[in-house]
UniProtKB/TrEMBL annotation:
Molecular function per GO: nuclear export signal receptor activity
Family label: Belongs to the exportin family.
The entry's keywords: Nucleus, Protein transport, Transport
Compartment list: Nucleus
InterPro entries associated with the record: ARM-like (IPR011989), ARM-type_fold (IPR016024), XPO1/5 (IPR045065), XPO1_C_dom (IPR014877)
Gene3D superfamilies for this protein: Leucine-rich Repeat Variant
Protein name: Putative Exportin-1
A GO cellular component annotation in the UniProt record: cytoplasm
One Pfam assignment: CRM1_C
Domain Exportin-1 C-terminal: 84-173
Main location (coarse class): nucleus
Species annotation: Monoraphidium neglectum
Amino acid sequence: MAVGVHAFYEAVGLMVGAEGDERRRNEYLMRLMAPPNSIWAALMQQASALPDVLKQPDAIKSITHVLATNVSVCSSLGPPYLHQMQQIADSMLKLYSAYADLIAAEIASGGPHAARSSGVKYMRGVKRSVLRLVEVFVDKCDTEAMEALLATQYVPLLLDPLLGDYARSPPDASRLSPLDTR
């Protein structure tokens, strides 16, 4: 069923992108993204109050689903997706860092085999989803103005959460690429 939902969001993203008036396009985008943004906001609020909620399978599933929805819209909408990215970028990168820390803690307490546990695999799936959204967003930002915006605003934000995660990860976690699906 999730594939159908994501196909719907991708199709509506194409329709939103066809709107020539930027103000209306942004309004349509925010209306389209209202349900996933509501879920996202609730999850981020819960996680800030009780960080262990991020370990719960339902939370992981919801977060992954919301990120996949964002990937679908971004892939079809292209540069106008910037308006949505601005809404979630900060919390998305904090979430990435939180999962990096949770994974490191699981491996530190559970030893080398913990890196292959189902909990760690699901948490790594969230990190993979964040990376996928960043990848699609960067790929779609193919205008000179968007590339300049990426270089000045987003690349500095990405450096510590992404590269810092790799540098700080325990050996058992860093040996596994975030894109590794095993």
